[in-house]
């Protein structure tokens, strides 16, 4: 458990003392929380609400980037389907973030999962790698279609915007789901 020292509910209507390393034998029957516990829970709830708000704003921004790319891919339905799938992924990520708030899990558990070096590295690989692949494939399709310069820079700009948006959505979805799953398991063990 990663929490400050204090009394916490053990799930049996008892307050058990956590000394910042392990559970001790100190138990209170009183169901009223210790003032320090109440203060830390209030602070965690405020941080958690702010984090969920920022997560929703980030998700909406990523969804707007993905939507802005749809006109550039009007002749490529498979990519449009990918953009729509990204929007569903973004909704799923936000639902998970909101569910974390409903489970009353401390905000640091969610933040920790979304800022690990693995998830940040994965996001950059998705964004940069996806952009490079899409640029090459888009260039080949652009030349092969025989439309010459009719689209101008629209296709390249659309590819850049789409992969920035989709990369951001995937970067939110993966860590969001893994952290939700881990936090639920950790919460289950914490209450035992």
Automatic annotation (TrEMBL):
Keyword Membrane: yes
Record keywords: Membrane, Transmembrane, Transmembrane helix
Residue ranges crossing the lipid bilayer per the database entry: 49-73, 79-101, 122-147, 159-177
Record's protein name: DUF2510 domain-containing protein
Lineage: Bacteria, Bacillati, Actinomycetota, Actinomycetes, Micrococcales
């Amino acid at each position: 458990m990663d929490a400050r020292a204090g009394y916490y509910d053990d799930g049996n209507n008892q307050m058990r003392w956590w000394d910042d390393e392990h559970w001790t034998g100190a138990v209170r029957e009183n169901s009223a929380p210790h003032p320090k516990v109440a203060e830390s829970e209030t602070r965690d709830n405020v941080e958690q609400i702010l984090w969920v708000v920022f997560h929703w704003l980030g998700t909406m921004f990523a969804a707007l980037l993905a939507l802005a790319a749809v006109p550039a891919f009007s002749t490529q339905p498979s990519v449009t389907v990918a953009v729509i799938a990204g929007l569903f992924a973004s909704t799923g990520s936000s639902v998970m973030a909101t569910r974390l708030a409903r489970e009353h899990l401390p905000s640091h558990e969610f933040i920790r999962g979304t800022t690990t070096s693995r998830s940040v590295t994965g996001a950059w690989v998705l964004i940069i790698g996806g952009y490079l692949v899409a640029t090459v494939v888009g260039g080949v399709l652009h030349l092969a279609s025989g439309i010459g310069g009719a689209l101008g820079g629209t296709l390249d700009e659309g590819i850049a915007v789409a992969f920035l948006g989709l990369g951001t959505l995937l970067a939110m979805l993966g860590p969001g789901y893994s952290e939700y799953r881990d936090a639920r398991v950790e919460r289950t063990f914490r209450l035992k």
